[in-house]
C-alpha cells in the first residue's frame, strides 16, 4: 500500500501526543521533529516540508490549542488540516464545458500510464457522470500507441477517433472535435504523444494542440513511484503548458507518497485523480481530506460508502432491508451479500479504510482469508432450497452431507449455522426495538 511508511511514522508520533493532558511548546517541537523526518523519508520535497513544519508549529503553539481541554487532539487536528491543505484542500472537480464537447488534453512522459488513464477517465465519465466521451489517438510516434488506444476503446465499447500516423496531431485533434460535435460526444479525450524526457519538440507540438483546441483541461499523467522526478516533470509541463490538473498513477504500488504530498505545493496544480491499479475501473477522484485521514490512520469511511454505493444494487438493498426488518433473511440472501461485498475489491483493502483499522495488530501483514469466505459460500451452495430457507431443519445427518458436499468440515458447517442463527436473532431484536421506539415505548 502507498504511504505505508509515512503513515506508520506519523501515527506513531501522533500516538505519543494524543492522550497528553498537558502539551507544552517543547512537546510540539519534539513532535514536529519526528513529523519532519517522516516527511523527508517519504521523499517529500525539502522546501515543502520546511513550510509545512513552520505552519503547523505556528498554529499548534497558539494559546487556544495548548490551553484547550484536549491539547493532544487539537495538535493532531492541526496536522490533519495542514496535510489536507498541502494536498490542495478542497477536492478539485473535472471541468464541464457549457458549450460541449469538453476537451481534455492528456499529456505525460512515456510509461507514466497516460494511455491507460485516458481509457480509465473515459470509463469513469461514462459510468459516474453519464457522459458520452470519445477517445482521440493523437500519439502518432510510438508505434503501438494508436493500437493500444483502439484496444482500450474496444474493451470499453467506446468510440476511438484515429487518422493513422501520417496526419499531424493538431489536424487529428481538430477533426476529432468536429466529429464529436456531429456525433454528440460531450467529452473529447486527446491522448497526446509521450517522450522519455521533456523535450522541446514535444512541448512545441503540445502547445500547438493547445492553441488550436483551447482545451478545458490539460491533465498531466505522472507515475507516483517516481517521487521527486514526478514533481520535476510536473513543474516543467506546468511552466510550458499551464496544467489544470495532475493524475497520479500507480498509487496502488508501494510509493512513499512524496509526489502526492509535494506536487500541489510546488506546482500549484491540483491532483484531480489517482490511479489505483491496471484495470480500467481503477481510478478515483482525489480527495485531499480523505487522503490525509488515511495517512493519519483515521480511516476513509466516505470512500468506503461510495464503493458500496457503486457496487450494491439499490433494488436488492431495499429488498434486503425489508427482509431484515421482517427477519425473513435466508442463506440465499446471505450469499448474495457476500458476492456484493466481494465486488468492492480485495477485503483487506476495504478493511484498511475503516477508522482505527491500523491499530489492529498485524493488519499490514494480514491478508483476509478469502479462502475462508470461499468455504462459507461452498457450504451455502451445498444446502438445498428448503434448507436455505429453513435452516432449523438442518439436523446432524444433513450437516454431515453439507460438509461433505462443500469439501469442508462439520465444525465449519456448525459454526456458520450458529452465526447465522445469532444474526437472525439480532435482526429480530433490532426490529422489535424499532417497533417499540415508534410507539414511543422505548428510549435509547
Ligand atoms: P503511457 O506510455 O504513459 O501511455 O503508459 P501506459 O498507459 O501504456 O501504461 C504503462 C504501464 O503502466 C502499463 O503496464 C499500465 O498497465 C500501467 N499502469 C497505468 N496506470 C497504472 C496504475 O494506476 N497502477 C498500476 N499498477 N499500473 C498502472
Distance between the termini: 40 Å
Classified by CATH, the class of the largest domain is: Alpha Beta
Q: In CATH terms, what is the fold-level topology of the largest domain?
A: Rossmann fold
Main β-sheet description: 8 strands, mixed
In which order are the strands of the major sheet placed?
Answer: 3-2-4-1-5-6-7-8
What amount of the residues lies in strands? Answer: 5-15%
CATH superfamily of the largest domain: P-loop containing nucleotide triphosphate hydrolases
Radius of gyration, CA atoms, in whole angstroms: 27 Å
CATH architecture group name of the largest domain: 3-Layer(aba) Sandwich
Flag low-confidence runs.
438-444
Tell me, briefly, the overall form. Answer: flat
Mean pLDDT: 86
The count of β-strands is: 8
Structural class: alpha/beta
Q: What is the N-to-C succession of helices and strands? A: HHHHHEHEHEHEHEHEHEEHHHHHHHHH
Count structural domains. Answer: 3
GO molecular function: 7S RNA binding; GTP binding; GTPase activity
Catalytic activity: GTP + H2O = GDP + phosphate + H(+)
InterPro entries: AAA+_ATPase (IPR003593), P-loop_NTPase (IPR027417), Signal_recog_part_SRP54_M_sf (IPR036891), Signal_recog_particl_SRP54_hlx (IPR013822), Signal_recog_particle_SRP54_M (IPR004125), SRP (IPR004780), SRP54 (IPR022941), SRP54_GTPase_dom (IPR000897)
Enzyme class: hydrolase
